[in-house]
Write a structure and sequence with these properties.
About 50% of the residues lie in helices and about 15% in strands. Helix 19 runs parallel beside helix 22 (about 755-785). The two termini are about 40 Å apart.
């Protein structure tokens, strides 16, 4: 019986090649896109699950005065964790990815490796597997390193590196282990692990500072709230007596703005949703996951709607077969099973093609955007099982409507060659089909409108005033220690034609550095500033706009308390009247105020910033160039550098910081656009198939109309009207849906566009134009029908 159903299904597919092809192609592309999104989301959800006891691992975070929650915590905390009996082990670590970091093995140099510096508790908390070495002794002393296999091959051209040495940041490290390949994702990204972590001893004054990350493993999975209560006891017992200078009780202090409080965050929550200050690396973007999830569901719904409508259209040509089967005694249940078998077979076939397309799409995405998706359906059997179950469900859902719809027809009229529309009462079926078309194009129109505003937002970000002149600013990252005569180097650079100004500093806008300074303004009030250590030439080099007061003077002492604030900083400290000369935080004296400028990215609201004159250890040199003959100017700057400095001349431009941010935004916009185009393509296949179905059902009507004198234009107009009103209705429904969705997305940006009418006009023209081009062929075909052929059997 099953073999008979399969044979009949294949015969039906061959009999109607056009509609069968449309059906399979639409479903294949839809499933292919859906599988790409599912694979990406599955990958996002695998983070940290490779650790055996991931549900017992937590990161301890700290809310430090008015700074808010930070991923860093004080080094003091590790020495008090033994007071919490549920903690089995802990590790303190930091990440070093400085611009000057170089791993050196003879002539082989790898710049800026990702280095995880950790205490010897690392392998007790995280069960990384070593291919070579002993986890108990891998980092139990100074100057030891554990390499990933990839980094070992890059640095030594072999994986057999035990006992070999290499230089990093002026120290010789010995390789004491090689990690086995990881088959899971983690937020801890590194090239090698170093035992050279600065881990200071406990002193009371260290409660005033933060730095580094602390991870713990508990004896069993616990709710974070339980750990938080015990961490509060540590704060009240050890931190409160040291840092509190008010009359608040310990309980009141923990509820004030000037508190120092610790929190436990499950490791699984870090990549998926953490966005604290000083994150160890870039975590996943919840907004991207939600957007792709919605688009994936949209595409799958469109593909299923196509399948239902195209299956109905294809089956309209099988009227005699259905009638003959009923005459021969086939029960309705058998017909339903037959049609469900066909739909499932087509779905499985489309899923195979879709799986191949998904692998192709993933390869293309990775080539275009980097290693975005590192998984493959083939490498994860369980993912394949879930997908197979999903395909069977999709096949059932997509085929159940056509199955029950087609199996309900009466046999005698069918055997006379009558069309389905002449046999069935199509009122309910037509309403359902029209509703599905409206839903399909509501989704497509929503995606078109959303894509328009996503790209409009991207173009707007390119034109946003960042608050300073980021063009033609050359940046050299280098540790300028006390042996370097900064003024002599700067004066020599200013002699170069084309160099307008030069500034030594520790931080530049959007350079991904994190320097937050919290200042207490009162017993229950603090302000967290983005801190910039600068020199007297910083404002001129970057073109900062001075609103009040003055900038630092060259002869000013670098140890005094004079500062410059941005406008947001001035508002945060709440100084009344002329702020110049006023003191806040019982120490800092304002000498000037500059206009707000973007510190980190376009998404966040510009917060308080404080500029401090400090040249003790600048890490960057910013050089303002004019726009004439930049290449020659850079070459001259290089000569000056090589003549006075020992380090290599390596530079970038300041505007590259913002270009990298925009490129990331563009990647998200491109993903939305690509999936939108594919969704429209699938919708058009469905509309084309539905137009073919309707043209076949109304062939007799059009024949009669032509006999009565209707022109081709009249029939085209009449035929297209039904579709036009559906598309119009879909677009009207899509407007409020897209307005809500786009506004929700735009709320993630401090700098955002407002929704204008032209966006909807353009989207409407695109929607109607695409729909018209899709049905134009079937409309003309219906208008050119020969009435003799359509009415010969009447």
């Amino acid at each position: 019986m099953i073999a008979h159903y399969l044979k009949t299904s294949f015969r039906a597919l061959r009999k109607n090649p056009l509609l069968s092809t449309l059906n399979i192609v639409g479903l294949s592309v839809g499933l292919g896109c859906f599988l790409v999104i599912v694979t990406y989301l599955y990958q996002e959800n695998t983070y940290e699950k490779g650790f055996t006891d991931y549900d017992r691992i937590y990161r301890l975070e700290e809310e430090f005065l008015g700074m808010g929650r930070t991923a860093w915590s004080t080094s003091n905390l590790q020495y008090k964790l033994n007071e919490i009996p549920e903690i089995e082990s802990y590790v303190r670590l930091s990440v070093d990815q400085g611009s000057e970091g170089k791993a050196i093995n003879g002539e082989k140099i790898i710049k800026m490796p990702k280095v995880l510096k950790a205490t010897d508790g690392l392998f007790e908390v995280f069960d990384f597997s070593l291919q070579q070495g002993d986890v108990a002794r891998a980092i139990d002393g100074p100057n030891k390193a554990v390499l990933t296999k990839d980094f070992a091959r890059r640095l030594f051209a072999t994986e057999d590196v035990m006992g070999k040495t290499f230089e990093y940041m002026g120290k010789e490290l010995m390789v004491t282990g090689v990690l086995a390949d990881q088959v899971f994702e983690t937020h801890l990204k590194f090239d090698f692990i170093s035992s050279n972590l600065y881990n200071p001893e406990y002193t009371d004054k260290r409660w005033w500072g933060i730095g580094g990350y602390i991870y713990i493993k508990t004896t069993e999975p616990l709710k974070p709230q339980l750990l938080n209560k015990q961490l509060d006891e540590i704060s009240k017992t050890y931190v409160y007596p040291v840092v509190n200078n008010s009359e608040l009780s310990a309980e009141e202090w923990l509820s004030s703005a000037n508190k120092i409080q610790f929190f436990a965050k499950p490791i699984r929550d870090i990549y998926l949703g953490s966005n604290e200050k000083f994150e160890i690396g870039a975590n996943g973007d919840k907004q991207t996951r939600v957007t792709l999830s919605i688009i994936g569901v949209f595409i799958l719904v469109i593909a299923i709607i196509n399948f239902m409508n195209l299956t109905t259209a294809r089956s309209s040509l099988r009227t005699k077969e259905i009638g003959l089967r009923k005459v021969l005694g086939t029960r309705r249940g058998h017909l339903v099973f037959q049609f469900l078998t066909e739909s499932t077979l087509i779905t499985l076939f489309a899923a195979l093609i879709g799986a191949g397309l998904s692998e192709l799409f993933i390869t293309l995405l990775n080539q275009k955007l980097g290693e975005v998706i590192g998984l493959s359906i083939l490498s994860y059997p369980m993912l394949g099982v879930y997908i197979l179950l999903g395909v069977l469900v999709v096949g059932f859902l997509a085929g159940i409507y056509p199955a029950f719809y087609l199996s309900s027809v009466k046999m005698i009229p069918l055997l006379k060659g009558m069309k389905l529309g002449q046999v069935l009462n199509l009122g309910n079926a037509r309403t359902l089909r029209n509703g599905l078309v409206v839903l399909q194009f509501t989704i497509s129109s929503t995606l078109i409108i959303s894509s328009y505003f996503v790209y409009s937002q991207l173009q707007y970000l390119k034109s946003v005033d960042v608050g300073f002149d980021k063009e033609q600013v050359l940046v050299i990252s280098h540790s300028f220690d006390a042996t370097v005569n900064l003024e002599a180097l700067r004066n020599e650079l200013l002699t170069v034609p084309g160099v307008e100004q030069a500034s030594f500093n520790s931080r530049l806008p959007a350079d991904r550095s994190a320097n937050i300074m919290s200042t207490m303004l009162g017993p229950e009030k603090s302000v967290a500033f983005n801190a910039f250590q600068v020199d007297p030439y910083y404002a001129e080099t970057l073109g900062l706009q001075l609103l009040q007061g003055k900038w630092f003077s060259p002869g000013q002492s670098v140890s005094d308390s004079l500062v410059v604030l941005n406008r947001a900083g001035l508002e945060a400290v709440g100084l009344e009247g002329d702020p110049v000369g006023q003191v806040f935080g019982n120490y800092w004296r304002v000498i000037g105020v500059v206009e707000d400028f973007i510190v980190d990215n376009y998404r966040e609201q510009i917060g308080p910033a404080i500029m401090i004159y400090d040249q003790s250890s600048p890490g960057q040199l910013a050089i303002k160039l004019n726009s004439q003959n930049v290449a020659a100017t850079v070459a001259s700057v290089q000569k000056v550098w090589e003549g006075l400095m020992a380090g290599p001349f390596e530079y970038k431009y300041l505007d590259q910081n913002f270009t990298e941010i925009l490129n990331k935004e563009k990647q998200n916009a491109d993903a939305v656009l690509v999936f939108t185009i594919l969704a429209i393509f699938i919708s058009c296949l469905g509309l084309f198939g539905l137009a073919a179905f309707m043209a076949d059902q109304r062939a007799h009507e059009f024949g009669i109309r032509k006999v009565l004198g209707a022109s081709v234009a009249d029939i085209v107009r009449n035929f297209g009207f039904d579709f036009t009103r559906l598309i119009v209705l879909a677009f009207v429904v899509a407007i409020p849906v897209s307005v809500y969705a786009v506004n929700l997305w735009l709320n993630g940006y401090a700098n955002r566009i407002e929704l204008g009418v032209w966006g909807f006009v353009v989207a409407a023209l695109l929607s109607f134009g695409i729909a018209f081009l899709t049905i134009a062929f079937q409309s003309l075909k219906a208008g050119r029908l020969n009435p003799v052929k359509t009415l010969r059997n009447e």
